[in-house]
Amino acid sequence: MKPIVELVDVTKQFDGTPVLKGVTFSVMPGEIIGYIGPNGAGKSTTVKIILGMLKKDAGTIRLFDQPLDPNDVTYKARIGYVPENAELYETLTAKEYLLFVGELYGMEEKEIVERAVQMMDALGIKDAFHGRLSSFSKGMRQKVLIISSLIHDPDILFWDEPLSGLDANSVQIIKELLAKLKQEGKTIFYSSHVMDTVEKLSDRILILHDGHVVADGPFSELKKEAAGTLEQLFNTLTGFDQHEALAEQFLKGMKGEITHDA
Amino acid sequence: MMRNVFGTGEQAKEPVYLKLIDQLAPLYSKVGVDYRQMRTILEMKMTMDSRKEAVIQGMGSNAKQNEEKNHFFSSLWVYAIISVFLLFLFVYDNWVFQYTTYFSYIFIMLFSTMLANFSNILLDTKDAELIGTKPVSQKTIGAAKATHIGIYLVSFTFAVGLAVMLATFYFNGILAGLLIIFLTFLSSLWALGLTIIMYSTVLKHFDGEKLKNIIAYSQIGVSIFMVMGYYLMGQIFEVIDPETFLVEMNLSVGHALLFPMWFVAPFGLLQEGIQTVYIVYTLFLIAGTVAIGILYNLNSDKIDSNLQKMDKAKAKLSSRSFLENGTAKLLSFSSLEKAYYHFTWQLTKNEREFKTRLYPSIASAMIFPLFMFFSSLRGDQPITSQNTQTFLYLPYFTMLAIPMIAVATQFSVNYKGRWLFELSPKHAKGPFLRAVTKVMLVKILFPMYGLISLLIVILTGFIYSVQLLNGFLLMSAILYFEMKRSSQGLPFSRKYAASEANQGCMASLIFFIPVFVISLAMILLQSFVPYAEWGVLVALIALNAWWMKKGFNK
């Protein structure tokens, strides 16, 4: 079997600051990949490059066994994407937004509405179908984004913090959904800071640090390098062990006991 | 037949512009645009423009939100009425003179509207995430953006040109009437095409922080070019007999660069028959249109593919300048007001969208005084023998920027940050508005007024310094009253949409009348009543001291 996504030595810099310094990994069809790393490590940048929103500086990318061609957008019809920030066209209603997205995928109105209503019902927001997105809570918007990423039945999902803002019950549903999507043969590539979820759901975990992939493998294997939870492994690999000292520093700052130069 | 997804009900009527654009579907497809997708995007954008954003959460079920009205279209009649003054042109029998003035006016209006009000729509980065991740080509996204702005721009141009177009049918015949309709339409496409080509070139060649500055400079550059163009245009015609309205045209090779003249040449051919200069200019018009078409087609996908650069620019280390600290200390009367002063100073320094919206208006407000200043230098007499008092009018024209400032400070791209102000105590609105007004006075109006005044001081010396100071104090007071009149809630708390586009423009046009009356009253008072300038000075100082301390409290 050939990889569905393959990155080799991909680099990217912004205004002279390197963000990706040679990212290499591959994803096989049907895998659930947890893509984690500290804030600003370049997780969203990687996804945006794969989705053609940003241009890479160097390296090669293959998607669906084809080299990524910036002039050909047809591959995007097989991708579902949930962005990191729950950005939506807020003055539209949920129905209008989902119809808009479905239309861009070339779907027919009837088909979009039927799918959207059923999916919204399953996530408990069917009554808000005709409500404006500006009046939705953060969790409701996140659900609309999740639905919009799945409405066209894609082959691979790129989800950036998909569980952000969701209540406990909805998180349970999404976790179940991910397992079922995997059974359907879908590939799922998601970034999250909730280590517990990543640990339990992922077939493989990629840890991005300082512009490189510093760990790649199933959690059971990664555990051999550093015992404990994924959170502890993450801290070890990203060289971070000063939680207590920093919390102390923060508290002092709050009380005006200044220890650093401004 | 396309279906209608957006709209208030199933039976919602399809807007005329969509029907018209449907006729162009084969043309879009021919240049590589997916028409169905483009139409979907366009329909969605127009629906959003006609809706106001709900300010408070939970407004979703409120009936008021379902009111759909595009404020841009419903306010176009104001432009149509204001442009009636152009009808004076028809007392002259020279068509070339008539339409040179007409197209100069049209292009000035078009470019200032395009740059100030639609740049942000063109440079919006949200579409990249929400549409760019779907199987939609950059060309289709680019075409949707251009068509979206095009609908507004064409409607605007037709409103501005309506009076002249109708009069053309009546005075100059059907053929000239059809020609003016076609060329007016073409002029709006030119403004749109040239702006897109300019932005895509800038976006392609620059990166990061430099890119943001270049965008602001290119807008100012276009405005300066307009001033120069107007100045040169003024030289082309000379009224040789005011009684018979006889005008003489003095074209030179340099005038060939003034492209509004190219739009006039076909009228020359129509009225005066075949003449080399008109044929050459008409050929320039055709060649220019073809060139813009080709360049647009080559660059239309470059804007969106390079837009991400704007958001990825490294943030500069923010520091408070000497001017900022000094004026904050001098003009703020409480610590809360001082905090808002710094906040406003930094926000207006860093927010690209704010600059994009305001800078072209500032440049346009400078056009009149600069143009008049330099044209008065043109006279054969030495400056000393001229009636230098006429110069005193000039700085007053910078007041035309005041309505634009009042509008610009209402919006912010980070409008959601308003929760911060909403949480602050109620009495904070007064200090906030005072601070915003003071920052605008120091950062925007003072440099504008100062520059024109400086030119006058260089020419006339310090004999009018009290009058000039009075002018500035008057401007400061007017800024206060305009900010108070137009403030809707807290500053920087509203989201900008295309349908808001002509808010400030319209206010500026209406503003012209009081500015003229007040300036005239000031000049007359200070010229003919002995020592009046000192009285005016005392009154204005008192008024300004009052608003700076207690303004906006109610």
From TrEMBL, chain A:
<keyword id="KW-0813">Transport</keyword>
<dbReference type="InterPro" id="IPR003593">
    <property type="entry name" value="AAA+_ATPase"/>
</dbReference>
<dbReference type="GO" id="GO:0005524">
    <property type="term" value="F:ATP binding"/>
</dbReference>
<feature type="domain" description="ABC transporter">
    <location>
        <begin position="5"/>
        <end position="235"/>
    </location>
</feature>
<dbReference type="InterPro" id="IPR003439">
    <property type="entry name" value="ABC_transporter-like_ATP-bd"/>
</dbReference>
<keyword id="KW-0547">Nucleotide-binding</keyword>
<dbReference type="GO" id="GO:0016887">
    <property type="term" value="F:ATP hydrolysis activity"/>
</dbReference>
<dbReference type="InterPro" id="IPR027417">
    <property type="entry name" value="P-loop_NTPase"/>
</dbReference>
<dbReference type="InterPro" id="IPR017871">
    <property type="entry name" value="ABC_transporter-like_CS"/>
</dbReference>
<keyword id="KW-0067">ATP-binding</keyword>
<protein>
    <submittedName>
        <fullName>ABC transporter</fullName>
    </submittedName>
</protein>
<dbReference type="InterPro" id="IPR051782">
    <property type="entry name" value="ABC_Transporter_VariousFunc"/>
</dbReference>
<dbReference type="Pfam" id="PF00005">
    <property type="entry name" value="ABC_tran"/>
</dbReference>
UniProtKB/TrEMBL annotation, chain B:
<feature type="transmembrane region" description="Helical">
    <location>
        <begin position="358"/>
        <end position="376"/>
    </location>
</feature>
<feature type="transmembrane region" description="Helical">
    <location>
        <begin position="149"/>
        <end position="171"/>
    </location>
</feature>
<feature type="transmembrane region" description="Helical">
    <location>
        <begin position="504"/>
        <end position="525"/>
    </location>
</feature>
<keyword id="KW-0472">Membrane</keyword>
<feature type="transmembrane region" description="Helical">
    <location>
        <begin position="396"/>
        <end position="415"/>
    </location>
</feature>
<feature type="transmembrane region" description="Helical">
    <location>
        <begin position="214"/>
        <end position="233"/>
    </location>
</feature>
<feature type="transmembrane region" description="Helical">
    <location>
        <begin position="102"/>
        <end position="123"/>
    </location>
</feature>
<keyword id="KW-0812">Transmembrane</keyword>
<keyword id="KW-1133">Transmembrane helix</keyword>
<feature type="transmembrane region" description="Helical">
    <location>
        <begin position="245"/>
        <end position="265"/>
    </location>
</feature>
<feature type="transmembrane region" description="Helical">
    <location>
        <begin position="531"/>
        <end position="548"/>
    </location>
</feature>
<feature type="transmembrane region" description="Helical">
    <location>
        <begin position="76"/>
        <end position="95"/>
    </location>
</feature>
<protein>
    <recommendedName>
        <fullName>ABC-2 type transport system permease protein</fullName>
    </recommendedName>
</protein>
<feature type="transmembrane region" description="Helical">
    <location>
        <begin position="277"/>
        <end position="298"/>
    </location>
</feature>
<feature type="transmembrane region" description="Helical">
    <location>
        <begin position="178"/>
        <end position="202"/>
    </location>
</feature>
<feature type="transmembrane region" description="Helical">
    <location>
        <begin position="435"/>
        <end position="456"/>
    </location>
</feature>
